Amino acid sequence: MESPSRVRELFRGFGPLFARQLMSWSVFLQTDHAIKVKIRQVYDIKDNEPIPSRLLLPASALVALCNTTMVMPLDCIKT
């Protein structure tokens, strides 16, 4: 039978990892939505029309930059 310390050891670091992933998804989804809304406003694209790829590529790079900038400091937390 496994001792409680082995089970606890198995889940060590889960809390900080979960918090990091929660922040990562929150930042990604909010930034992605905000940038796509802004693109639709600036280029007068209706909600039922797709955003052209030539606009999505730089938008995705900006989303990735924002997400990395917000989440990378959490990678330095020691578990």
TL;DR of this structure?
The protein has helices at residues 4-10, 14-42, 53-71. With 79 residues, it is mostly helical. Helix 2 (14-42) runs antiparallel to helix 3 (53-71).
* Helix-strand string: HHH
- The proportion of residues forming helix, as a percent range, comes to 55-70%
Strand percent estimate = under 5%
Q: What are the low-pLDDT stretches, counting only 5+ consecutive residues below 50?
A: none
Give a written overview of the molecule:
The protein has 79 residues and is mostly helical. It contains three helices and no strands. The two termini are 26 Å apart. The mean pLDDT is 91.
Describe how the helices and strands are arranged.
Layout: H1 4-10, H2 14-42, H3 53-71
List keywords for this structure.
mainly alpha
